[in-house]
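Fig. S4 source data, part A: sequence.
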Amino acid sequence: MFRRQVAIVAAAVAAIATAGAGVAMASQAPVGTAVAVAAVPRPDHVVVVVFENKDYSTIIGSSSAPYFNSLAGQGASFTQSFGVTHPSQGNYVAMFSGSQQGVTDDSCPKNLGNVANLGSQLIGAGFTFKGYSESMPSDGYTGCSSGNYARKHNPWVDFSNVPAASNVRFSSFPTDYTTLPTVSYVVPDMCNDMHDCSVSTGDTWLKNKLDGYAQWAKTHNSLLIATFDEDNFSSVNQIATVMVGEKVRTGSYSEQINHYNVLRTLEDAYGLSALGNAASATPITDIWTTSSPSPTPTSSPSPSPTVSPTTPVGGVTNPGFEFGTFNGWTTSGTTAIASVPHSGAYSGAAGSTNPTNGDSIISQTFTAPAGITKLTIWWKGDCKDTVQYAWATIVVKHNTSGTTATPLAKTCVANGAWKSVTDTLTPGHSYTIQLINHDDNYPGDPSITWFDDVTLS
């Protein structure tokens, strides 16, 4: 094929959809009395309140959210907390069931059937669960909307194994907190959750409606979790998450968490099986007064991470891109989170289905943990050109030794299948992974490469 030597600038770059292809799981709620995992204490009551569409910096340190920042100073404030997808509804389903269950939009209704979820797990194990929705017109309501109420923010309605009696109006939230269920979810209406109204409106609502419970929880072995579904599309889906309770050690915590870590923590607290992506998520264990003191907590609610997400100690952050973002990775050129996974729901894509110009790179620096000697990376290419002009390659810089490995040499293959490459590691050494797609911007023969499952063994 004759090639012009002058690159032609492409008119547009196609975006890659971040669809969450969650897999529905059979119900597996345990029966009888469950035993908590030792690293996570068991509260008598947990209340989880979820706000809407605000990034971390809009809340933490903001003068518009004085009460939220007050809570951050009274409990554990997470400086690296993230939603798992966009838009809203997939986050609610994920935090409640361990998977997006194929939910990729806000359409209604979503009828997900007899799929295991936190509510069905708790009830099956002899605990209790209720979801309190503000402005819902009646208890047990299954309609999609009514005034400021939206079912898309009410995930328990989507599962047939959560009884209608667990779906109640927020007006029935008790003032005698001893009568609360074991675990409650509270969903403010579309104004008070900050979706349609200001941050200060939601912040005032939180103070007026739940400060009484927050203060009570600190002396009654209970827990308040205040979080957000997602950011406002202005950052990397970073959100504010605060936990306040009797067994919570006050401080600012820099470990990276998302909705699956929170779900896993609640499941561990009540001895429940970890569902879906929560099974591979790390429970939150360092914030409890029953655990060993964390080296990083402070009393300040402002960000104070001591470990950068791009240089984690002890392994690769977000190795399968299952946060639905590039959290932990740095990118350049044309990159996107894609629903073309080797496993799970996502992969990281470099390049595009339209021509792009030069290198598109996804990279991360990490330290090999003790006992780790092998790096495995899965890749899948679709290169419409020849390797003279476009290619995929994987480069691993051995920072400690000053050498460089190329597990995947430059290659160009059209509609390729998933394949893996490996590199040898030395425990304690620093490495930088570079996942690269190169294209020469020539019309008609674009190059794109998907990368996934960056694992250490």
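Fig. S4 source data, part B ends here. The chain has two domains: 45-280, 330-456.
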